[in-house]
Amino acid sequence: MIKRSLRTIVEGTGSPMGPSDLGGRLIVLRDTLRTQLWLLPSVGVGLALGLGVGLPQLDARIGRDLPPWMTGYLFGGGASAARTVLGAIAGSLITVTSLTFSMTLVTLQLASSQFSPRLLRTFARDRFVQATLALFLATFIYALTVLRTIRSAGESREVFVPQIAVTTGFVLALVSVLALVLFLAHLARELRAETTLLRVHGEANETIRRVLPPRRFESVDVRPVSPPPEAVPLPAGASGFVLRMDESSLLSAAVEADVVLLIDCCPGSLLVAGTPMGAGWPRAATSFDADIELRLTRQVARAIRTGPERTAAHDVTYGLRQLIDVAVKALSPGINDPTTAVHALGHVSVLLCDLAGRQLGPRPLRDERGRVRVMLYQPNLADLLTMTLAQPLHYGAHDSAVLAQMFFLLRDLAWCATSDQRPAIAHQLEVLRAEAAGRQFGSREMARFDMLSKQVEQALAGRWTPAWTPS
């Protein structure tokens, strides 16, 4: 009976497959490289070395053939003056680079303590900071490289002053000064809570739109259905957070072994090596062959890639986790900033409304004949609501503004939710009501909560009411 009901669910649901394994690898690689502070500076140093070697050679070839109107704009001093200029540029730029690195580290420390340690990846992937560091290091390396090519009159070879190269160094120094001013302004803007929340929201929205397709049919939750008795647990191959799933490999393994797979984890889940992360059972036979079972276990373990930390490459809940961490941090006694918590919950509300229109819940992978072979777990709206509201409600229930924002969140989400998602919203509404009733708020605040609660109920019923009431 269990097998028949499970097959009915499996045969009756489906959705298009996600990105290919190659595309998934490229997305993870791109996300990893974007968070490395060394990448752009290394590229800048390489370009500076090439430019510092190539421009003096260009000077030696065409320097004497330049028209007079152009030479008037180039460096006109001798070898001693050129060495002084380039030495000053190199000395000042290495000092500025050290200062920039120090300010970047201070910014990362403040972001970790003020907002959340999980925001360090967001700050580290800031292209403006990486480009500024690349410019400073490139200018320093360029000045040193060109400096070695200058020859004075007393040396064995003829006098050589690369006018184009020295002028380029002077221009790079001016650009670096401007970049330093812009860098300071950029840091001041990035440390604002509003800018941080907006950046996290943008990254989360990008992941949601890339990973989750628009909603096309009602989701079917298969988690309450137990696998049949012949199902074999599939252990995780390595400990860590799930970074991505090679869906094509999972489907191929299921087709090759003629089994149905139920994978009970998703990107962002924490796995422990050797513990079950899903199950598989024969589609037609009554038991597994030992060799098939061993091969299937290894193939599934290789198809699920793990890492030491969560990333936004495929994890649609990571952005929500960051926003909730900011809200909880702001509600801590050491920070005591409920306004930031309210703003963070506002961004969570927007993301949840977008997610309500996406294909949530378990996602099946079909073979060429249209039969579902793999069922991948994905959180549904009820899971997302529990994740986003549980901690802010626990730490912020004493603040009326935070509670009111949660009511606003449910009201806005009710307008975007479908019929099968509304019971989850109604359940969270009852939890909010009970929490508000258990607190010692004044009569005016309780009246406001009652009004907001009725607005959520009417939104669930499809009726709109204004946010204000006549006095």
The number of E-state strands comes to 8
Could you say which overall geometry the principal axes of the C-alpha atoms support? flat
Distance between the termini: 60 Å
The side-by-side strand order for the widest beta sheet comes to 1-5-3-8-7
Mean pLDDT: 86
Low-confidence stretches: 1-20, 218-224
What's the order of the H and E elements?
HHHHHHHHHEEHEEEHEHHEEHHHH
Q: What characterizes the major β-sheet? A: 5 strands, mixed
Q: Name the helicity range.
A: 55-70%
Number of helical segments? Answer: 17
Describe the protein in words.
The chain is an alpha+beta fold. The protein has 17 helices and eight strands. The chain has three domains: 178 residues, no CATH class; 89 residues, Pyrimidine nucleoside phosphorylase-like, C-terminal domain (Aldehyde Oxidoreductase, domain 3, Alpha-Beta Complex); 125 residues. It has a five-stranded mixed β-sheet with strand order 1-5-3-8-7, covered by helices on one side. A hairpin with a 5-residue loop joins strand 7 and strand 8. Helix 3 runs parallel beside helix 7, helix 7 runs antiparallel to helix 8 and helix 14 runs parallel beside helix 16. It is flat, with a radius of gyration of 30 Å. The N terminus is likely disordered. This is Putative membrane protein. Pfam families: DUF2254 (PF10011).
